[in-house]
Design goal:
311 residues, globular, alpha/beta, 10 helices, three-stranded parallel β-sheet
Length: 311
């Protein structure tokens, strides 16, 4: 039986890496001929990615191997002027040799059709108008949108002259060159840092709560002032809540990355005051939590990942 090898190159970040690994597992379960290699890029030393790599090594999934690529020097693009330009330049420094290998390429896209249409639009527009978007431009006829789209609602990168527009243009060109298959997975997946004991603790706590009485909060990373304001607001509201609180890594003056626990950012004595009414965890099984009868509301930052999970 002839084997087929696939090489996955996910965007840097543990969220992208986790979804790529789960997608790879589903592929190999569907076809015994498939072998998969995942190339992992890193912005910086990341404990979450290290834990995921370690867990994958221990479990040794059949026909999947994960390779940590050596870190590269940061690009010269100023991330404060264009985050999109910085991210594109960083990824380009990794994948340029892969592109020259002449391998057929595909895109694993979890965003919606409107986003795909938006990415197709800049290359087509650029053929007639090679400058960045302007607020004074007439409304745009973008594939996937029923009505014309005014410039004022487009992402800020479309107007950015410091690499943002160029990044969108190049990404759109890559999208047009590759084969794209949107995938929506509603089964969910555990985070590598969430062990089964912690998962059972969360679900047991929810089992003890009244029906539709708990608010589930998941915002991604917050700074300490935001965490304290949110914590006090939840305490004063009187509502029951489950809060998935992720603490962002911080660098000291020497450039060493430090990871805090949620307790380090909460008001003093907070856990004792909300005991029984509120629960705080770093990661939670979102799909299981949202499907639980005790959940009556979901508060998030409206990123695409929680929106997919919610559906």
């Amino acid at each position: 039986m002839k084997k087929v090898e696939l090489v996955f190159v996910p965007t840097p970040g543990v969220g992208h890496l986790v979804s790529t690994i789960e997608f790879a597992k589903r592929l190999i379960r569907r076809d015994d001929r498939i072998l998969i290699t995942i190339l992992s890029m890193k912005w910086f030393s990341d404990a979450s990615i290290d834990a995921l790599t370690k867990s994958l090594t221990v479990s040794r999934p059949d026909r999947i191997q994960l390779i940590d690529l050596p870190q590269v020097y940061p690009p010269s693009v100023d991330p404060m002027k264009s985050a999109e330009g910085y991210i594109y330049a960083f990824i380009e420094s990794y994948i340029h040799p892969v592109r020259n290998a002449g391998l057929p390429s595909y895109i694993f896209l979890t965003s919606n059709a409107a986003f795909l249409g938006l990415m197709f639009y800049p290359p087509n527009r650029h053929r007639q108008n090679s400058s960045e978007f302007e607020n004074t431009d007439p409304e745009h006829l973008i594939p996937g949108f029923v009505n014309p789209v005014p410039s004022c609602v487009l992402p800020s990168a479309c107007f950015n002259k410091d690499g943002g527009y160029t990044a969108y243009l190049k990404i759109g060109e890559r999208f047009m060159d590759a084969k794209i298959g949107p995938v929506l997975d509603l089964n969910g997946l555990p985070h590598p840092e969430l062990d089964l004991i912690q998962r059972d603790k969360i679900m047991k706590w929810l089992d003890d709560q009244p029906q539709s009485a708990v608010i589930f909060l998941c915002f991604g990373s917050f700074g300490e002032p935001q965490v304290k304001e949110m914590a006090l607001g939840l305490e004063q509201s009187g509502y029951r809540f489950l809060w998935s609180l992720r603490v962002p890594p911080q660098k000291d003056a020497s450039g060493i990355v430090h990871f805090k626990k949620p307790e380090d950012m909460l008001p003093e004595g907070y856990r004792e005051r909300i005991q029984g009414r509120g629960m705080i965890c770093e990661w939670a099984p979102q799909v299981e939590v949202l499907a639980h009868k005790a959940i009556g509301g979901f508060v998030s930052h409206c990123g695409w990942n929680p929106i997919l999970t919610m559906f």
